[in-house]
TrEMBL record:
This is Peptidase S33 tripeptidyl aminopeptidase-like C-terminal domain-containing protein. One of its GO terms (molecular function) is hydrolase activity. Residues 18-71 are annotated as: Disordered. Residues 447-536 form the Peptidase S33 tripeptidyl aminopeptidase-like C-terminal domain. InterPro entries: AB_hydrolase_fold, Pept_S33_TAP-like_C, Serine_prot/Carboxylest_S33.
Length: 537
């Protein structure tokens, strides 16, 4: 009930497609570096060019977050440990960055300090982990990359894409709350396991109340573990950190490739720091309009129908040759798990977990179809191991533990968004059944944000006024971030330019399509975006 909303999940399992064009340079150990202080009168890094207060915000339909547990007080100190402050904003801008060879032997790694609360830098500090991989002569400077989420770290993406764009040093960072940075901590493995096993498709008031109570308890566990960190992991906080990292790496402008939620990071950066914005590639856009009516389950339904259409026409698929029947069989299988979960080595493959496992494959292109066919065929005859493993990947579960993503995703998503309370959830969920009759009912609903213990960030309207051209890329068959969101993002950003990829999969820029690659290269190397509305097939 957490993972079904993840956007960027394939990076977690190393499924970044495409080959590097050249081999990256061998990393060296540059040693400590102290950046120059901003000249007198210049903006300090992390300080928005215009105050956040007073900016235009998105309209709300009613009271925001009426049922959140904002008065919940933990009985003990949080498990997250904060650092001593460096002092004021200038002290953070001139901190010594100690670059070292990463433990893996690939790339250069460093940890920087940022204020826990950017508006009170004299208080506690946090750590932000950064990795850069040099390439060629590094003459183009750093190119920052973000895989999405929210809740994913970016260090692995930097390593995966190193050398893809010549003479750029690829830089990835684990946003605050994630990965090796100061990260969100919630309950024990057993507590999280119990939460993940809750029935997210309630059939009666008793099941619904159990889901509500379990969500409230999960939210309390995260406050117990993370304390005030939960109040300072909004995307506004993330991009203020990013601006600090940009400065500490000596880049005058931010050059950036963001996928999925990473498009929100890029758009927010351009909104707050338009004069420090360089060339931004925003691939698989999320909604920034606040009034988008396309549910994510509709994207998964589209991708599932693409799969079952292939299945019906292909000799390589074992599920049958009639698409309607295949859809009915999948729906019947998932629905049957509601009352009778499959046993997988002592663990139940529930209706929710099975739908989550299917969703993992729908993030990918049609290259994943044969594997999805096999996993579904096995599950339908009683072997649910492959489908449960896929669900575990999306849920961040491995080796009887949960990765940070299981906690960072809800923590970051809930403070970035607003909700209308518990009582609207089921009604909104059922309204999606007509357009997503298989995925919506079986993926279920969630009450996590409605019972969260932190309030929302201001719902800024992102237009990036004054920023240079921004390239937005949308894939027509994207399962997780429907194509329409790329259209509306390009329209709302004043300098947005839309590039459409007619194909399947979650994101196109890291794939193998030559047309997309050439357009992105031209933009990153020369600053020239393709004609607005251009299409690659």
């Amino acid at each position: 009930m957490i993972a079904i909303a993840l956007v960027g999940a394939l990076f977690l399992s190393g499924m970044v497609r495409g080959q590097n064009r050249d081999q990256p340079a061998s990393p060296t150990t540059p040693g400590p570096h102290t950046p120059s202080a901003p000249a007198q009168g210049e903006r300090l890094p992390g300080i928005p060019e215009q105050p956040i207060e007073g900016r235009e915000t998105l309209p709300l339909d009613g009271p925001a977050n009426p049922d959140r547990q904002l008065d919940y007080e933990p009985a003990t100190a949080p498990k997250v440990e904060f650092l001593d402050s460096l002092g004021d904003h200038l002290a953070y801008a001139t901190q010594v960055v100690d670059w070292e060879l990463c433990e893996s032997g690939e790339g250069q790694c460093a940890t920087i300090k940022a204020p826990l609360d950017w508006d009170a830098p004299e208080r506690d500090a946090i750590e932000v982990a950064v990795r850069r991989v040099p390439h060629g002569d590094s003459s183009r400077g750093p190119l920052f990359v973000n895989p999405g989420g929210p809740g994913f770290g970016g260090q692995d993406m930097a390593q995966s894409l190193a050398g893809r764009w010549q003479n750029f040093d690829t830089v990835g960072w684990d946003p605050r709350g994630t990965g090796e940075s100061t990260h969100v901590v919630c309950g024990s493995f057993e507590e999280t396991e119990a939460f993940m096993r809750l029935d997210a498709s309630p059939d009666d008031p008793g099941e619904d109340e159990e889901l509500r109570q379990g969500s409230a308890e999960f939210a309390q566990q995260c406050r117990d573990g993370s304390g005030p960190l939960l109040d300072h992991i909004t995307t506004v906080d993330v991009v203020r950190d990013l601006d600090l990292i940009r400065h500490l790496l000596g880049a005058e402008k931010l050059n950036y490739v963001g996928v999925s939620y990473g498009t929100y990071v890029g758009a927010m950066y351009a909104e707050l720091f338009p004069n420090s914005t360089g060339r931004l590639v925003l691939d698989a856009a999320v909604d920034i309009t606040g009034d988008d009516e396309v549910a994510q389950s509709e994207g998964f339904e589209l991708a599932l129908n693409n799969f079952t259409a292939w299945c019906a026409d292909s000799d390589l698929c074992s599920l049958g040759d009639d698409q309607a029947q295949i859809n009915d069989d999948i729906d019947g299988f998932l629905t049957g798990l509601d009352d009778d979960p499959l046993d997988v080595d002592g663990r139940p493959l529930t209706q929710t977990l099975a739908a989550t496992g299917i969703a993992l494959f729908l993030y990918d292109t049609d290259e994943a179809y044969r594997t999805l066919d096999q996993v579904l065929a096995d599950a339908m005859i009683g072997n649910g191991a492959g489908l449960l493993m896929a669900a575990d990947i999306l849920n961040g579960r491995s080796n009887n533990s949960y990765d940070t993503i299981a906690y960072a995703f809800p923590a970051m998503a809930c403070v970035d968004g607003v909700d209308e309370g518990l009582d609207r959830v089921e009604e909104d969920w059922r309204e999606t059944f007509e357009k997503a009759p298989i995925m919506a009912p079986n993926m279920g609903l969630g009450y996590t944000c409605q019972t969260w213990t932190a309030d929302s960030a201001p719902q800024l309207k992102l237009t990036a006024a004054g920023a240079p051209p921004i390239l937005v890329v949308g894939t027509t068959g994207d399962s997780a971030t429907p194509y329409r969101q790329a259209v509306t993002m390009a329209e709302q950003l004043e300098s947005g330019t839309l590039l459409t990829y007619e194909g399947a999969g979650h994101g196109a820029v890291t794939g193998d399509n030559k047309c997309v690659a050439d357009a992105v290269d031209e933009y990153l190397y020369e600053g020239t975006p393709p004609e607005d509305g251009a299409t690659c097939r």
